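ok so I'm stuck.
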Amino acid sequence: MRSGKRSGRSFVRARAVLVAGMLGVLLAVAGCAASGDSSGSNAKADVRSGPREGFADGDGGAAASAAPEEQADGKAAGKDAAPKPGGTHVIRTATLSVEVKSVPKAAAAARGVAEGAGGLVASENTERLDDTYETSHLVLRVPQERFQEVLRELAGSGKLLSRTSNAKDVTDQVVDVESRIATQRASVARVRELMDQAERISDVVALEGELSSRQSDLESLLAQQASLKDRTSLATITLDLTPPDAPGDDGSKDEDPGFLDALGGGWDAFVTMLRWIAVAFGAAFPFLITVAVAVVVWRVLRKRRAARRAAPAVTAAPAGKDGASAP
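replied:
not stuck anymore, here's the structure
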């Protein structure tokens, strides 16, 4: 009896183990099938999406070849539109007035300072006051990083009379011009592409006019960019060199004039009076001539009238002895 019970229990255990193993196998097979179906659906989706993306631009190969060019153009435009890594862009100007003992030597030294700093002399104007003294007006262009150094050297070349300095930040203007240049270049490129695709002559003519207008705007922007680059890279210094006052010219002569000064002043006043009298006589001369002619005519007419009145008394017959007139 006990052996029968033990064999029955072992049979039940074996059966339970067999059923559990079969369930595990079924679950594993189902999991593999599900993963296979999901991978297959993903592969189908990739296959379907691939042609759609390829035909979205018309030709897969053309789109792939055009993408690098567009990226390159985008990078180039980004480089043109981005500001320079130097930070701000400033236009610096200064004006100096210096009194020096020798203007020619000071002007030569100023030219040497500007050229030694890597700059140049934009203009120079020298004017001679008399046989001894002269003045010079120089416009110097120096690099921005040497601006303060050159100012100190020029101001120390003599007696500083006046000094003004100005700095103008044009960073926004520089960035705006560079951005507009990038946009205008892209616009010109689009018009040229349309010209290559145009078939009718009227379209080609219209596109040529549009291209000429856009290229003109682009050249104007490039000129503005060049001007800004020149003014922000080189500072402008205007230098005026003057000689000192003449020795002994302390103004005493003006305050206490001598006999010769008074004589010279009187002579000038006399000559001026004669000049004004001559001018007045010249202005009145036509009127005087007219009045003189009128007086002469009036006197002639008066004499003739008096002669006519005296003529009848002279022509009358003389009276007789008895007082009667002769027959």
